[in-house]
Amino acid sequence: MQFLKDRINELGEVRSPEILKVDRFLNHQLDIELLNAIGREFHKRFEDRTVTKILTIEASGIAIAAIAAQYFKVPVVFAKKVPSQNLDADTFETDVFSYTKKTTYKVRVARKFLHPQDQVLILDDFLAQGQAAVGLMNLVQQAGAELAGVGIVIEKGFQEGGRLLRADGVRLESLVIIDSMKSGAVQFRETEQSY
Ligand code: 5GP
After folding, report:
1. What is the per-residue pLDDT for 89?
2. 32 or 99, which is more confident?
3. Which atom of ligand 1 is nearest to the CA of 129?
4. 189: helix, coil or strand?
5. Which amino acids bring their CB within 6 angstroms of ligand 1?
6. From the alpha carbon of 21, which atom of ligand 1 is closest?
7. Tens digit of pLDDT for each residue in 153-166?
8. Phi/psi of residue 126, each to 5°?
């Protein structure tokens, strides 16, 4: 996805050799034209799979999932990080270790939104150590639903998440894979890797 690589090169900020800030277009200010292209690309890559629901995690995954869902024509469910009185008591929940915040938090989804007959596509903005994706996969498993695949906008290929998921046989589609961010320069992997 050249369009995405261009945005990362133009507007992404390498905060450390491991953290890329994308708040100008992906997770604070939103470039809707880019999100639309991302949604279309996820749909193309998972065309061979039946998807009945998209699952993501608040907050940054929501915009990505919502726009992609217009192509898949299925509902989006987002896992909640913050306990709320409005959330049903009957939830699937799991612990996720946050790589960026260095803390463990719980994520929850009301049981009424994930069913054994669901074929769930997980979408998220970044794949780093894979903890968010594994947590969401755990919720899918608890529901007895089937995992259709995992779609990631930016995989940091120098961290463990991609290797972990692929070794587990997960159908993982990352729109771009970054191999290195040393000295502030983003190096993309040439061939976008898929399952
Ligand atoms: P993981 O669970 O794979 O270690 O990390 C994925 C989650 O951490 C994503 O949902 C994303 O919000 C956040 N994250 C990981 N690495 C980065 C990064 O380099 N930049 C930003 N903006 N978020 C990241």
Report:
1. 81
2. 32
3. 4
4. coil
5. 19-22, 27, 60, 99-100, 124-133, 161
6. 22
7. 999 999 999 999 99
8. -125, 150
Residue 67 has pLDDT above 80, yes or no: yes
- The rounded distance, in Å, linking the Cα atoms of 108 and 95 is 9
In this structure, how many other beta carbons lie within 10 angstroms of the beta carbon of residue 181? 19
Give distance in angstroms: CA of 92 to centre of ligand 1: 22
- Atom 23, ligand 1: which residue's CA is nearest? 126
pLDDT score of 180 more than 70: yes
**Cα 70 to middle of ligand 1, angstroms:** 24
Q: 119: CA distance to ligand 1 center in Å?
A: 24
Q: Report the residue among 21, 78, 100, 134 best suited for mutation to probe ligand 1: largest number of ligand atoms under 8 A from its CB.
A: 100
HSE of 133 in the Cβ direction (CA atoms, 13 Å)? 32
Cis ω before 59 (30° cut-off from 0)? yes
CA of 127 to the centre of ligand 1 (A): 6
